[in-house]
Protein 1
Amino acid sequence: MLLSAGILVALEIQWRTLGFFPTVPDTPEIWALERAAVQPESTVFAGSSMTQAAIDLETWRRETGEDVRQLSIVGSSIGPTLIDLIDDPDFRGTIVAEYIASLFALDTATQKSARRFIERGRRALAGPAETIEAQLTAGLRARATLGRAELSPLEVYRGFLEADRPRPGRFRMGADRQLSVFFDPAVSGPPMPTEAELENAPRYSREELLERVARLETLTAPLRARGGRLIFLRPPTTGGIRAREDAVFPDDEILAALGNIPGAIAVDTRPRSGFPSFDTVDGSHLAAKDAPAFTREVLARLGRRPSTGVHDDGS
């Protein structure tokens, strides 16, 4: 027993020395665990991996004293999570909803996939035994590098046979679904689009955008009637992704329309609004080191703390 424990400790130390770290797979079960932990007055984040990376949950929790839950879904948008919370008659908290052109629709195939993700999570936690197993598994993987699938003995052996050794990842997921993204010099975002590409890019018409906002207003009416709040937030984007978004998505109009929903606030994170400029790792995901500063600046815009106007590194 002691020998086995010693071997496991040695392996854990070795993998961490090589740059690996614990991470929790973002499964439907993990989402369902966080959803079950939502309190009637929690602050809940709804969006995609962009929001998971941009918002530092501990910073928000520490600065506000609120119960904070991350319910964003990779590759999704606000629709499925928003509907799930609105349909909960006990929930009267705050939803921080991501908005970005490519993820703004409420009825696309992506949204159908997200709804299936939520349903699978609920089915997987059908009883107390399944819930406890999911909690223990998430806790172990959040603390032990050996919990990573690619570091299992079989995968490591296969990698050595194929001369394809495991490499440290650029992402880390906590048991609370906090996504940390780390800089990798080998990865860059999409190139800047040409003028012709921008000219030919499919654009959202003003009428289409306003119609979607009207649908959101109707959809969220029950939540607002219960005293719930809506905060619309656009995560930072840079480079080619930002250029494309700016070309097809008129921020000024959509911000004004979202902010006109009764009981809603729209946070303008564009540098031209006076919001500090934040770089991204790949054009759409904020680096882990900048997430606390970005979160504090969002809170400052909401009137919950003074604005510092600087990053953690003093820049």
Protein 2
Amino acid sequence: MRRRDGADALLRTMSRLCVLLAAVCFLVYGLTAIRTADARSGGVLLAAAERENVPDAAGVERMREEEAQCEEPLGFTAWSQREETVMALDGCRRTQAAVVRICGSSEYLIPYGKILQEGDEEGCLIGRKTAETLFKSHNVTGLSVSCGGREYVVRGVLSAPEELLVIAGEETEAYDHITLDIRGGNERTAAEKFLARHGLSMQCMNRAGFRKTFSLTELLPGSWSDFAGWKQNFAAWREGVRQQEKIVPSVFELEAEEKKNMAVGAFATGALLFIYSSLGLGFRFFKI
């Protein structure tokens, strides 16, 4: 009887340790994935609800010249996105992909992997899945693809987003997205100053794919008793949210949101397992 009781106690202890180990693994994975998503998210995203009154290549160049004269100039990349057909150069295979046309370097937009340098009109970056669809391999650096009647040499393959083609935009391209190189500090304030400097009507989206829905600091007037200020700030906030709802999420936002949702889910699972184990409910879960 004592041996049996000892074996049962050992089994329960091992079960509890297994639950604790699983909880720690989920927690560590969740935290690591969240930090990785933040690090791979690029800069602060600005986006326009309409493609009217957005800069073309000449307008972006003027913005760079004006920004260079500021006390604290910001690096940025202007870009646009459309779903288009991409073909292997031999024309045998084709696929639909998010084609991103950039004005500037890709480093602010995609701060990982190979960089498409500013002015490289013959090169491109390609997503892993797009590469495998067109060439049955992801080792395609140096091969060529065709899009919009032009040929591009693959400079590098991106692990994410997977269905993607990044190329240099043309002179007449309307750039309805801008990614700012802002790291630390009050990112939203810096972005709003950038918009005001260049007279742009764009919305400041959140980093890493999560769009802004509510911030108490945006609603606070100069004084708590300033009821007109509360009303005015709330109306401005509501209009901003309304404008954001008109903007179609970019491929980068969708990718970042998916990654972060998975990370948050893993972290939540780890937290629940830890609570179960801590309260001794892990035994009931395993019916021991």
Protein 3
Amino acid sequence: MVQQGSTGVRAVGAREELLDPRVLARLESVVRLARRVPADPRRGLRLPGRGLEHGARRPYEPGDDLRLVDWPAFARFERLFLKLPEDLPPARLDLVLDGSGSTACGEPAPAVRLALAAAALAAAATARQTRTFLWWAGEHVARHVSARPAELVRLLRFLSERRPAGDGSGVARAASRLARTSRFRGEAVLLSDGLEVAALLEAAARLGSEGFSVHAVVAEVRDELSSAVARTVASAGTADLVDAESGQRRRLPWSGQLADRAGAARSARLATLARGFAVRGVPCEFLGTEEPFERVAWDRLRMRPARHRAGPERRSVGGSMAESRGERQRTPAPGARRAAEGLQGGPRRAARRSP
């Protein structure tokens, strides 16, 4: 029996891949690169606290600490004012990971690719002393917090225990919960297969209205069916299609046209999503099937934030997705190219010749 979701075929079984030692080794490479890239100055909301910089002032009251008296203000106004120290909020990154049933559909399964991309973003963030909150948006919203690179194994275990299920409304619920519970407003990244357009746009709008800097990562698929499943249903001639989100079943005679139609439907949804993100000013990048999952983390370490691109131009070819995309122009951040080349064995300066 073939289990097909809204536009794909269900294929779950990611625990072994997520816990593969080679995955952890690749994440450690991201950590090393993140530590070598110069950090940008921390910018954000200033909060009252025990900081070194001073912002607001209030009239002096008996018993206040005389070390905080603003003496230049006293010389000007002949009144005592107390300087209120300010503190920068802790650096924070929120990752909203789509856990709907459709993410388990397609080849390769977006659920695995999105989980690995989220782990790579967490590795880069924690290496730069940024606390990372991962919000699993499945049937039930779950949260995992990572503060150090040493906790990446726990993050991978958490992801391996999650099972994609339910509709895409979990993304909107997770975004709403994040907006309600988070005291600080930083960067929020939506990771999804892009099929639940309305829920994703609602989540982006909610987080943007609450002051978050919203980005989106969409995982693409190469085929709607794996080669093994395609051969099986072709020989059987019929397939029991089960919607991965609603559980509805339909038995249909199988032909290659069904896969082509599923691919066309997926392409149309992704194009609609890309236009919706563009209208809302949300940068969106597509993670291709042949690209390493670390690429989303590399982009944030080596480059300045990229401008929004409209999305891939796709066509359905024999049940598979083919896309033609333009090269994006990116501007390297200061010092980032040197750090990346040093890590990956890139070009080095030629040694000076002795006179």
